[in-house]
Amino acid sequence: MKNVCSILQTAKLNLEQTAVRLKVSDHILNRLLEPKEKIELTLNPTLSDGRHIQVKTYIVKHRDSLGPAKGGIRMSASVTIDDIQGLAMEMTWKTALIGVPFGGGKSGIQFDPVGISQEDKEIIIRSFTRGAMRHIGPEIYVPAPDMGTNEADMGHIRDCLAYSRGQSITNGCYVTGKPIILGGIVGRKEATGRGVAYTVLAACKKLGIDIKKARVAVQGFGNVGSIAAMELSEFGAKIVAVSDVTGGIKDEHGIDMKHLAGYVKECGQICGYPVAKECTNDDVLTCDCDILVPAATQSVITSDIAKNIKAKIIAEGANSPTTPDADEILAQKNIFIIPDILCNAGGVFVSYLEYTQETQREQMTLEQVNKRLNERMNNRFEQVFDYSQKNKLTMRQAAMDIAVGRVVEATQALGALP
Length: 418
Ligand code: NAD
What we know:
The chain is α/β, with parallel strands linked by helices. The chain is 48% helix and 14% strand. It contains 15 helices and 13 strands.
């Protein structure tokens, strides 16, 4: 098979294969292959030093048959409209699978946030919000953080929207992943990584792996990767390799996650960490371990990497980390994959709790949030696992069948405009 790599190509291929299994009509498939709305905005903000820059930004609403579009804002120099379209499609399946009343959306800001001052980042985020304002709202599209964006950015988006409306926008949830003081929910920042760890624990139980003896490798030490690594190490697993965009480190005796997190907070990167051996990012993916958590970016597990992977479980913390040809190789090697639309759905599930909390105006406790998260991740893991066993499918195929099946049912029930 051809080496299909982009997020959009991977997403379309996964959908087409699912449509064949579910016998979805061409008419419905063609609707699901294309987004409902695709917007490209060019911004011209002026940075704090007086420099005028031009920034391309994108918003894609894939489907909203189960509710308003939901999906994060990715800020990266390399993000493209195709990436955002593929990620928005994935969000449609993720929200359907995890069972929250949202559709799929995503936005992108084509700018490298590494090294930029908070002041300049705020300028760009506010500029994006002003441009995108018509496309954001509790019943339209509700953004959240993704790669390169964070809580503080969500706070600025909320402020910018409130300012434009001349009111304090407490009449619904416009953005999730906000600071708690602005109506954010406790545990949202950690929810994706925590959800990854919960699904890993569930997979270990099915495969008879003792988490306390498990060796884990994690690619990416941002929001998702660092929290997943920290949780898994608290469950008793040994983290033997970790990387970020600057490179990797490994230690077969285990790396102290709290110490590493402190180092990264201070130095801003993993490279240079003095208490473990340096290695490459590919070494992290292919090292001798039981569980591999790709939690950085897309298309990192290619066919060449897949051939050398030694892990028994791959927990896809990142969106679309595995290319379709790699997926086939991993299936042949009998490696158990917890697919992204299940594995990293904890973030959007807790975003949904934030969305409902904002209407009720009552703060949930961390205990309540984590309990709901744990129950939902386990419940959906069981559902996907049972379906895969019953129908002799991989976990990815099973998750896609369940998710796409729900969206097809809703799409048919709604009908189409003439
Ligand atoms: P982040 O920006 O907080 O962290 C990304 C990490 O990956 C950083 O450590 C960065 O250095 C590293 N990285 C980037 N490119 C890399 C490369 N080529 N090789 C190795 N490391 C690299 O982002 P995040 O929010 O943790 O998101 C990570 C992934 O998880 C993305 O695919 C994102 O779409 C997905 N995701 C995030 C959330 C969320 O709630 N933040 C929810 C669902 C899925």
